[in-house]
């Protein structure tokens, strides 16, 4: 992941169009791009998801989460509010995987649960931008989202006693981020970093209220971050 980020940064810094942004009097690209009432685009990116656990009792041993990088892809619909504010709808598809390690077990088959999730996300965001400087413009973005976890297994009759870790299908939360708009000759390129915070408890507890896997979990919520590369 670090190599990918480094390559992206170097590509931006070494390209002729990117270096032109910092000249004293740069040639302004796409001067009418931000004057449109409606704008469209798409994004590609990477994510890393984690879980935040809340426990009923402090037993001294937390559930371990082994995180991995996933990918996200989606579309953008933007409505101009004024010179500095835009409303954005960014529906997308996200894949991520997390491995949970439960304490107190002597065998790996009982202690380890692999959680693979495919989310269809529907974020509604507000983008607040600074004044354009040459061919670049910083911004912050934030808003709420709802998502559907296609790999939730919420309706499964099996639980952890059968090796099945279940999660709720519908998730609600908010995201915050920042980035920069870079105006090239042909399109607007916008890398950004987003933080994602679920508000709803995503855990479907085991049928046994004293389950060694879920019995002590009061709530389980997703935390994560995105690196999005947007093209408009």
Q: Note the main sheet.
A: 10 strands, antiparallel
The amount of helix comes to under 10%
CATH architecture: Beta Barrel
The CATH topology assignment is Porin
Quickly name the level 1 CATH class. Mainly Beta
Q: Per DSSP, what share of the residues sits in E-state strands of 2 or more residues?
A: over 45%
Keywords: Signal
Organism: Flagellimonas nanhaiensis
Protein name: PorT family protein
Signal peptide: 1-20
Describe this structure in words.
The protein has 232 residues and is mainly beta. The chain has one domain (40-231): Porin (Beta Barrel). The protein is 9% helix and 52% strand. It contains three helices and ten strands, in the order H-H-E-E-E-E-E-H-E-E-E-E-E. The protein has helices at residues 2-14, 16-19, 108-111, and strands spanning 38-55, 64-67, 69-80, 85-89, 92-101, 112-129, 136-149, 170-183, 188-198, 217-231. Strands 1, 2, 3, 4, 5, 6, 7, 8, 9 and 10 form a ten-stranded antiparallel sheet that branches. Strand 6 (112-129) and strand 7 (136-149) form a beta hairpin. The longest helix is centred in the first third of the chain and has 13 residues, at 2-14. The model is unreliable at 1-7 and 9-20 (pLDDT under 50).
A few lines on this structure:
InterPro entries: Beta-barrel_OMP_2 (IPR025665). This protein has 232 residues and is mainly beta. The protein has three helices and ten strands, in the order ααβββββαβββββ.
